Amino acid sequence: MAAEFLFSQFLSGLTTAIFLFLVASGLSLVFGVLRVLNFAHGTFYMLGAYLAWQTMAWLAPTKEGFWLAALAAATGIAILGFVVERLMFRHLYGKEELYQLLFTYALVLILGDAAKILWGTGQLSVSRPPSVEGSLSVFGALLPGYNLFVMVLGFAIAIGFWVILQRTSAGRMIRAAAMDREMLGSLGANVGVLYTGVFVVSSFLAGLSGALVSPIKAIVPGMDVEIIVEAFIVVVIGGLGSFWGTFLGALIYGQVLSFGILIFPRFSIFSVFALMAVILIVRPWGLLGRPLK
After folding, report:
1. Cα dihedral sign for 51, 57, 58, 62?
2. Quick count: other Cβ atoms within 10 Å of Cβ 58?
3. SS3 of residue 190 by DSSP
4. Which of 202, 220, 238 delimits the end of a domain?
5. Among 76, 100, 69, 108, which residue's Cα sits nearest to residue 224?
6. Residue 85 vs residues 27, 78, 115, 206: alpha-carbon distances, Å
7. 8 domain residue, yes or no
8. pTM, whole model, 2 decimals?
9. pLDDT by residue (tens digit) across 164-211?
10. Residue 150 and residue 53 in one domain
11. Computed from CA positions of residues 258, 262, 264, 265, in that sequence, does the dihedral angle turn out positive or negative?
12. How far apart are CA 293 and CA 291, in angstroms?
């Protein structure tokens, strides 16, 4: 029974880790390539959840409308990301970090107030799709079908990104831009288009993760602040700009939080921050990150 309980905690931590990876991977991608700390990434996540709810309200008679709603929400946030990058973000490239933080924080406030105007301040919820209802017994521990779907999707996205980054010309350009964007531009590459594409993909991931979390978490104003703090912890642990570092950081965060609740119920969050502090002292650039030049 003890082993089953511990394995259940492990699965709970793994579910948390995959959700965080989906959010934090886009945040890390933007920083690694564009060198912009995007605080508004969490707000894109929140708006993705709201758009999923809104699309579900329009598709109420459809049983499996959630999948279309999730795709529509992610696409809508990707379009928003395209507009924001083309009209605003491109003026931040190369600027001091203080300007980036102030601008993205202002964007958080503006979009957050817009969400309150459109959807109010009450709690909203989305039903789980019938196709993934129920639970699956894994080594004696019950795993909800929806959580299993999110895990599989998260691992698939991680592998897909690795293939794209390592095996395609677009991936090689992204890695080159992360290492030396000036040199890439001097070789004739259209760095502006590359930046826009990276920001759109990051926004899509934020919107998708927000839509996917909507069936298991209440949609409320302020959820963007909570998730951006967790995402920053993940990328700091794994290393800013490191894709696999983000994946590793998410796994560590999920398990430390899950088992920390068992060991120190009142200080489970403290255990995560303590771990981050130790890593920053020993390795300031994260577990798999590189020192910034």
Report:
1. positive
2. 12
3. coil
4. 220
5. 108
6. 14, 10, 20, 15
7. no
8. 0.91
9. 888 888 888 887 777 776 776 676 777 888 889 999 999 999 999 999
10. yes
11. positive
12. 6
